[in-house]
Amino acid sequence: MKNIVLIGFMGVGKGTLARAMAGKTDIYAIDTDDLIESLTNMKIKKIFKKKGEEYFRKLEQKTADWLASSVQNSIISTGGGFYKVKNLKSIGTIVYLQADFDWIYERITKSKNAKKKIKKRPLFKSYKDAKKLYEQRVPEYKSVADIIINVEDKNIDELIEEITSKIKF
Ligand SMILES: Nc1ncnc2c1ncn2[C@@H]1O[C@H](COP(=O)(O)OP(=O)(O)OP(=O)(O)O)[C@@H](O)[C@H]1O
Ligand SMILES: O=C(O)C1=C[C@@H](O)[C@@H](O)[C@H](O)C1
């Protein structure tokens, strides 16, 4: 099986969906932010603060190279900007999880857990800046996607069903 690569904006639910799919399908879920944290033994927030965004993007490319050469049969959730790596398509089938910015923001502000998680995301500091980044990225997410799935108001089981019906395993 080719890897499934979930892309999309911060907080849309990539990691949550990947882990739920793993639990149901017996395939490994891997997260690129987690890989970078374990490679560097540093939290994302700290990497941005101490080394800067450019350095973080280099780590994303290094991670993409490793995934392309060494990982198969997995579901990979990615950081919100990971889609920019040069060899994205060679990693697997690209699934863009799509939702309106205000819907994402609303869910985050309502969920304590999500709010805490987003605090760790340096690029989600302000509503205004995050929205601007979102608007800039939407056409780019769309153009690299093999499959687009709208996640608004669907539960995890419905999302898994939609993905598995659209991808040949
Ligand atoms: N289907 C869902 N139903 C309810 N809450 C959800 C769902 N999916 C995600 N969340 C909430 O949204 C938060 C962000 O989800 P998740 O960490 O999966 O997003 P992400 O796209 O992987 O984000 P990032 O790119 O920043 O790592 C989670 O902490 C969780 O509380
Ligand atoms: O959207 C982004 O560029 C980012 C999203 C997060 O998942 C992390 O990868 C990091 O905070 C950068």
TrEMBL record:
<dbReference type="GO" id="GO:0009073">
    <property type="term" value="P:aromatic amino acid family biosynthetic process"/>
</dbReference>
<comment type="subunit">
    <text>Monomer.</text>
</comment>
<feature type="binding site">
    <location>
        <position position="137"/>
    </location>
    <ligand>
        <name>substrate</name>
    </ligand>
</feature>
<keyword id="KW-0808">Transferase</keyword>
<feature type="binding site">
    <location>
        <position position="33"/>
    </location>
    <ligand>
        <name>substrate</name>
    </ligand>
</feature>
<keyword id="KW-0057">Aromatic amino acid biosynthesis</keyword>
<keyword id="KW-0067">ATP-binding</keyword>
<feature type="binding site">
    <location>
        <position position="121"/>
    </location>
    <ligand>
        <name>ATP</name>
    </ligand>
</feature>
<feature type="binding site">
    <location>
        <position position="57"/>
    </location>
    <ligand>
        <name>substrate</name>
    </ligand>
</feature>
<dbReference type="Pfam" id="PF01202">
    <property type="entry name" value="SKI"/>
</dbReference>
<keyword id="KW-0963">Cytoplasm</keyword>
<comment type="pathway">
    <text>Metabolic intermediate biosynthesis; chorismate biosynthesis; chorismate from D-erythrose 4-phosphate and phosphoenolpyruvate: step 5/7.</text>
</comment>
<dbReference type="GO" id="GO:0004765">
    <property type="term" value="F:shikimate kinase activity"/>
</dbReference>
<dbReference type="InterPro" id="IPR027417">
    <property type="entry name" value="P-loop_NTPase"/>
</dbReference>
<dbReference type="GO" id="GO:0009423">
    <property type="term" value="P:chorismate biosynthetic process"/>
</dbReference>
<comment type="function">
    <text>Catalyzes the specific phosphorylation of the 3-hydroxyl group of shikimic acid using ATP as a cosubstrate.</text>
</comment>
<dbReference type="InterPro" id="IPR031322">
    <property type="entry name" value="Shikimate/glucono_kinase"/>
</dbReference>
<feature type="binding site">
    <location>
        <begin position="11"/>
        <end position="16"/>
    </location>
    <ligand>
        <name>ATP</name>
    </ligand>
</feature>
<keyword id="KW-0028">Amino-acid biosynthesis</keyword>
<dbReference type="GO" id="GO:0005829">
    <property type="term" value="C:cytosol"/>
</dbReference>
<comment type="similarity">
    <text>Belongs to the shikimate kinase family.</text>
</comment>
<keyword id="KW-0460">Magnesium</keyword>
<keyword id="KW-0479">Metal-binding</keyword>
<dbReference type="InterPro" id="IPR000623">
    <property type="entry name" value="Shikimate_kinase/TSH1"/>
</dbReference>
<dbReference type="GO" id="GO:0008652">
    <property type="term" value="P:amino acid biosynthetic process"/>
</dbReference>
<feature type="binding site">
    <location>
        <position position="80"/>
    </location>
    <ligand>
        <name>substrate</name>
    </ligand>
</feature>
<keyword id="KW-0547">Nucleotide-binding</keyword>
<protein>
    <recommendedName>
        <fullName>Shikimate kinase</fullName>
        <ecNumber>2.7.1.71</ecNumber>
    </recommendedName>
</protein>
<dbReference type="GO" id="GO:0000287">
    <property type="term" value="F:magnesium ion binding"/>
</dbReference>
<keyword id="KW-0418">Kinase</keyword>
<dbReference type="GO" id="GO:0005524">
    <property type="term" value="F:ATP binding"/>
</dbReference>
